[in-house]
Amino acid sequence: MTQAVHVVAELGPGQPAPPVRVFGVRHHGPGSARALVRALDAYAPDCVLVEGPADADDLIEWVADEQLVPPVAILAWRADEPLASVFWPFAILSPEWQALRWAAGHGVEAHFMDLPAASLLGAREDATPAQVAPVRVDAIGQLAEIAGYDDPEAWWEDGIELRSSGDPFEPLNEAFAMLREANPEEDDETLRREAHMRKVLRAAARRGHERIAVVCGAWHAPALAGKLPPASADNALLTGLPKARTELTWVPWTHQRLAQATGYGAGVRAPGWYHHLFTSDDQPIVRWLTKVAGVLRANDLPVSSAHIIEATRLAETLATMRGRPMPGLSEVTEATWSVLCDGSDLVADLVTREVVVGQALGEVPDAVPMVPLDADLRATAKRLRLQISAVQKDIVLDLRKPNDLAKSHLLRRVAILGIEWGTLLDATSTGTFKEAWGLVWQPEFAVRIVEAAKFGNTVESAAGNALLADLTNLAVVTTALEAALAADLGDVLPILLRTLDERAAGEPDVTRLLDSIPPSARAQRYGDVRGTDTAALGGMTAAILARACAGLPAACSGVADDLAGELQRAIDGVQEVIGLLGAEFVDDWHGALLATLAVHALPGLLAGRLTRLLLDAGVFDSTQAGDRLSRALSSGADPAWQAGWVEGFLAGSALLLIHDDLLLGIIDAWARGIAARTFVDVLPALRRGFGAWSPAERRALAARVRALGAAPATTSQPTEFDWDFVQPVLASVSALLGGAR
Amino acid sequence: MSPEPTQELLRPHAEQRFAAELEALAAADDRERPANWLLSPWAVVTYLMGGTLKDGTVISPKYVGNARLIEICVATLATDRALLLLGVPGTAKSWVSEHLAAAISGTSTLLVQGTAGTAEEAVRYGWNYARLLAEGPSAQALVASPIMVAMQTGRIARVEELTRMPSDVQDALITVLSEKTLPVPELATEVQARGGFNLIATANDRDRGVNDLSAALRRRFNTVVLPLPASAEEEVSIVARRVNDLGTALHLPVGDGAIDEIRRVVTVFRELRSGLTEDGRTTLKSPSATLSTAEAISVVTNGLAMSAHFGDGILRPSDVAAGILGAVVSDPVSDQIVWSEYLETVVRDRKSWAEFYRACREVSR
Prior knowledge:
The complex is a heterodimer of chains A (about 750) and B (about 375). Chain A is of the alpha/beta class and about 750 residues long. Chain A starts with a helix and ends in a 5-residue tail after the last helix. Chain B starts with 13 loop residues before the first helix and ends with a helix. In chain B, β8 (about 180-185) and β9 (about 190) form a beta hairpin. Chain B has helices spanning about 15, 20-30, 40-50, 65-80, 95-105, 120-125, 130-135, 145-155, 165-180, 215-220, 230-250, 260-275, 295-310, 315-330, 335-345, 355-365; strands at about 50, 60, 80-85, 110-115, 125, 140-145, 155-160, 180-185, 190, 200-205, 220-225. In chain B, α11 packs across α12, α12 runs antiparallel to α13 and α12 (about 260-275) packs parallel to α14. At the A-B interface, α14, α15, α22 and α24 of A face α3, α4, β11 and α15 of B.
């Protein structure tokens, strides 16, 4: 096969140039792109036709603009349904891009020749992203098999992409022509597309062009080369095509998105690698490994030049062993893994992310037309009768009405995108079904929309993706969950829950785990109000609780005072919502609190707090709590620890002490027994413990303390009521309760 | 496969056991061989991964897994870079090393076992002290190490458990690997390696507290990490086969129901190791313990012994629970958290695991 290439490549200058040359390429194939540029230079066409949506012709002029930097993509979307969209990505190594650039650089007319995006989008009723048929891998597979390769990709890479000289197009066309003879194309869509390509080709010839270069996927090449079939058959195929009102524009693209198989043609597994092959002139392997070493060094992983030498040798030996003309991506990757990364998958993943896929981001000039997200936002606002205005307007929404609920969702979604169009005002009603918003549209929101457009084409999908973009820690995930539920972003909920689960499992800090429980529990409840399915969230909250319970005893052991304060706050937070989760979880939680109490070196604050919580929950009765209080405050322990204990125990409400003389007596005895100097040390903690109470409570407590010495054991006796005095009150209450008494 | 029992050896070497296959490969192999290699790189890969030769000889697979890893190993040895095989216990590191040496050099016996007590003599050379005293330093009084022999004869030397050797002994390898010479100052001479000499070292990459390789030595090696079995079924069958072998040797009957318990042990190990349940729906913390296939084998074997000697002879959850706990919880604080999380969030919810859950709860207290 290589010999054939050389023979055909010698198209001598003496021969007249054919009126049409068809260059069958592979989308995003650097070898194809390189060979194509050489072939175009030699052929010097006066018209270049490129496989791409014919209605995107207006966008070609931008290619000459230096500010349009690949990777970029042509984005087509249905005007009435922006989610229905197609992308045609272009990297610098795409033959299509090179053809367009060549045409722009030489002042030659260029056109797209594939079916217009309008009919592609019109043909589809659903809103799923389109897949334009790629070069047939099975076709390449057959050719590879003939050449004796197991792996079609490897054959193509060796035969086409890794070549740096010659003109492979004629032999490729012949090979594909034979393949297509053996396997006639039957797919209607492909046949229609080829008919349209021929139609554009005929039109170009009619306009009087003498040398037309056709750049298309290799599979289509035979259908366009040689003598074309009569136009009438093609026209018959093309009549009655559906047509949707479509808008097109350039959008920035990234190598990561090129690596995912979306949109145009096959996804490229390794855009960074192919980009490198395309842009490096000699010694591609050494240059590549040097680049990899650079990334490793930038990440503080020491790599020497000797490593690069050895990696190169290993890659070349592997290629020889496998009978390949030069190392391909797999050889280079394996050599990198074994030599430069010391066999570490973690480091190898870093290399894949930063170099093999690459992090290139394209740029688009400011002047290109509007993005679909903007169109969707304006259309949705119009449908919901929300006026986009720079004058503040307050609205009150009743979430029980579908339209108002949709408005609330929209406002919350744009807020997620950083567009603070609406500000939530305090609703006058205390119910959960009313929301008051203040609406003001700021001019700079336009910029934010363009920024947010990278997340998606509709407000809903963009808001969802924006939530997913930054999920670095557990707290962010739970907040995102709450936001997603409030904004009705059902699509991202499963992913958020999944991430929540992952983060919770990987979260070593019990405080953060505990902190994430209250928002989840509330979100669950909030979701119920809004009619969202929250069963999964409930399960996840239960799992987090189980994890927190498992880790709580160890986490509380021997922590410093400030952390103990954090933990106490977190534990109180969970205690508040634990009832929302159901009885069985309450038992688990109390079990964990009990286990924590038994832990050695538990800070006084937590020990006191846990005892109090268990007392309040009825797990301890007052005698048990008294025993514990007495044990904690007996002379063995450090006064500072004791003060912490009392602080934790008393935090919240004074009523406990006011009504329980046993506890009060113990504390009183302890407080009186503190030595003068130690008293100064423990005073701040005591102040915190007692100081948070209301003056009335403190007064009542002081009275009780005074009474302690004077008249013991009378305190819990009910006070004599003045029945005449309370009678009217009781009558009113009775009336309020509907005469239940 | 048809290994010929070599006399009545308890464990014949790879080159003895698979002599017939090696011979057939050498006969069929018409590709270029590096200096002093008995087979071409292609034939070495075929020997390890298995296949059928043109003359119909079936080569049994020695390594079950990714062929590309073996290709990297062989290519490494062909580039005269030393090969470092890393992996947790039970990933066939020594097995691969033995077969590579057998296929390339025809011998797998030039072996240095790394231990905390390995001395420099084992890596360089020692002396026959009787002769040394009688004759003074002479070539006859010198006792060559396996590595020295490999250098002299152009063959593959093996170092097992490289990271268990003291660091200074490890570093004695640097000259050998970079200069390919071994100086003998006492005799004012040196041994220069012949073509075909190379070194395969194995080391355990999860075993902390061993002597990490110095950067200087590390960069003389290409590293290949041998992974754990890819699928649960593969691992279950490996464990079941090994347990069966061991059970026969120890006269422990392996009952029919044992396979379910083995599957459970393997599932627990895999889930905790990967930090993800098999259904992919719950993420877990991973304990600090290795949880290798080898440990799963030992947990099941222990369980068998328990059930045979103290139980009713049927492998039950309670027989393996204590073993699993011991394997998982190596750090009493953090691993205990991992284990109770796993018990409460995963095991408890599995209906058919109720007995296992109870058994684990019992031993966890």
